[in-house]
Amino acid sequence: MNTDISLETSTRHDQHGRWPQAESVEDFRHNLAAVHARIAAACQRVGRDPAGVRLLPVSKTKPDASLRMAYAAGCRVLGENKPQEAYRKWEAMQDLTDLQWSVIGHLQTNKAKLVARFASEFQALDSLRVAEALERRLQAEGRGLDVFVQVNTSGEASKYGLPPDEVAAFLRELPAFPALRVRGLMTLALFSAEAERVRECFVLLRGLRDRLRQEAPDGIGLDELSMGMSGDYEIAIEEGATVVRVGQAIFGARATPDAYYWPSAGDGEPT
Ligand SMILES: *Cc1c(COP(=O)(O)O)cnc(C)c1O
């Protein structure tokens, strides 16, 4: 989607670990407004309507008090990477009846029953075993779940997600799991300060989605593209993101190294 307009030429992954902590509802309002303004600016650069981009605030590692402040500032969906952490927070926040939970990290089959119980969305589907486990547990709960298929667009061996060339066959299997409402594709880009290398990951996911959408089985929706996080969401929006998952730019830096969440993040330094 490059034209003569000037797109983002650097990521903000060098900012990593340096976002100030949000410590009041006011801080959350301020940070949310700042992110929304950047989303709007990115949309404007490429002629998109900001209404077509959903901001998913990511609250992993943050204490319940922070999540409650985010809620008070208007957040009604929160993203969490680890099923157990998310489940514990969901239990602790039952009083916030309209708060929904999106699980955005890798799932093992033995944790499927947790996710089936409370999550409204799961963004990291990348195996049929997990699809089967979720389907069984969701049927038992009488629930459905919005899902995104995670794609490994960076080629890093240790990253979760399906290789791009396996996604078409995977999607063909998913109509067998009616409790899973497939919404689109998700990816984690390369973690790099070089915007062009990061952008390539987003371009790849969008191209894959555009191609697969034409042959998608009935009932398999591929409208959504979940891509972009604090350091690169503006680039992702320029390349078509419909969901951006933003943690640190809203909540503040995390103390926990990213290697805990993404095996390939190494020591968390930009490459
Ligand atoms: C933590 C996380 C994010 C958000 O990262 P930030 O740097 O906090 O914006 C996005 N996606 C996934 C899968 C995550 O685990």
From TrEMBL:
The keyword Isomerase does not apply. GO terms for molecular function: pyridoxal phosphate binding. Transmembrane segments: none annotated. The keyword NAD does not apply. Its cofactor is pyridoxal 5'-phosphate. InterPro entries: Ala_racemase_N, PLP-binding_barrel, PyrdxlP_homeostasis. Residues 31-254 form the Alanine racemase N-terminal domain. The modification N6-(pyridoxal phosphate)lysine is found at K60. Pfam families: Ala_racemase_N. Gene3D superfamilies: Alanine racemase (3.20.20.10). Keywords: Pyridoxal phosphate. Belongs to the pyridoxal phosphate-binding protein YggS/PROSC family. Pyridoxal 5'-phosphate (PLP)-binding protein, which is involved in PLP homeostasis. This is Pyridoxal phosphate homeostasis protein. It comes from Acidovorax temperans. The lineage of its organism: Bacteria, Pseudomonadati, Pseudomonadota, Betaproteobacteria, Burkholderiales.
